[in-house]
């Protein structure tokens, strides 16, 4: 059985890889499909994202990286897949994903959506969070594969991971003003 795992993967995170690795044990073939979304301004080109995915999953022989545009259902049918794979981090993801699954079912009754709950350690993680941390100079080494972290640092002109220094301003405490005694 072939499963398609669609997304922007800009960049691929350890959370994505967790879902991919677990799916690779459940399905004959897993196709990680990078969606070309004209409504988003990506950090990495589609080709860069595909290469990041390929390097990150090279140890999984039944995982392939590909790209597409248009309706996901059409891509799933073109690849003769039976399953659309989605990861869930929180209840808010479930609401959106369930709506999408029902919509996809109206477009093709042959495709089943399978949800995998993300592992606890990645329940907060998204590509957007990774980019925001990196943009402000924080380390993303614990959130993405090493080769992806390096590319992210290069995008934000950081030579190496660095801690985001927090600067604070010292505020002099107000002096207490003695109250006049009433006579």
Oligomer designation: single chain
How far is it from the N-terminal to the C-terminal residue, by CA?
A: 92 Å
Discrete helix count: 6
Shape type:
globular
What's the β-strand tally?
Answer: 5
Helix content: 25-40%
Percent of residues in beta strands: 15-25%
Low-confidence stretches: 162-168
Structural class: alpha/beta
Report the sheet with the most strands, covering strand number, pairing sense and barrel closure: 5 strands, parallel
Order of helices and strands: EHEHEHEHEHH
Strand order of the largest sheet: 3-2-1-4-5
Radius of gyration: 22 Å
Instruction: Compute the average pLDDT.
Output: 87
Any chance you could write out the topology, listing elements then pairs?
Layout: E1 2-7, H1 14-26, E2 29-35, H2 46-56, E3 63-68, H3 72-78, E4 83-88, H4 91-107, E5 112-117, H5 127-135, H6 146-155
Parallel strand pairs: 1-2, 1-4, 2-3, 4-5
Could you explain how this protein is built, in words?
The chain has 183 residues and is of the alpha/beta class. It is 37% helix and 17% strand. It has six helices and five strands. It has a five-stranded parallel sheet with strand order 3-2-1-4-5, sandwiched between helices. Residues 162-168 have low confidence and may be disordered.
